[in-house]
Design a protein that fits this description.
GMP Synthetase, Chain A, domain 3, 97 residues, alpha+beta
Length: 97
């Protein structure tokens, strides 16, 4: 019997399938921990599909922060170079380009 061939469709292509739309996020300063906190579905989704270990993924992450005005919001809250930013399990020090 000739069965039709099985066609596999890619589950996810980061070049075309990244849709974070208008999902909410917050940018706040946690005085107790002395760090800036960025959270929300948009952030969680982005971190879930971005490989920060690769140059391409890290560049995407930087562009995401800029294009979604997260850097502007951090600066409006008074962030300084060397301050800590936390996004779920990721923490990094802020440095302006």
């Amino acid at each position: 019997m000739n069965e039709p061939p099985i066609t596999f469709v890619p589950e996810f292509n980061p070049d075309t399938d990244i849709v974070v739309g208008n999902e909410p996020y917050t940018v706040e300063f946690d005085e107790k921990k002395n760090e800036y906190v960025v959270e929300g579905p948009r952030i969680e989704k982005m971190l879930g599909y971005t490989n920060l270990e690769s140059e391409r993924g890290f560049k995407f992450f930087q562009e995401f922060l800029k294009n979604n005005e997260i850097l502007d919001k951090l600066e409006a809250l008074g962030i300084q170079e060397g301050d800590t930013v936390r996004m779920y399990g990721l923490a990094f020090n802020y440095y302006k380009e």
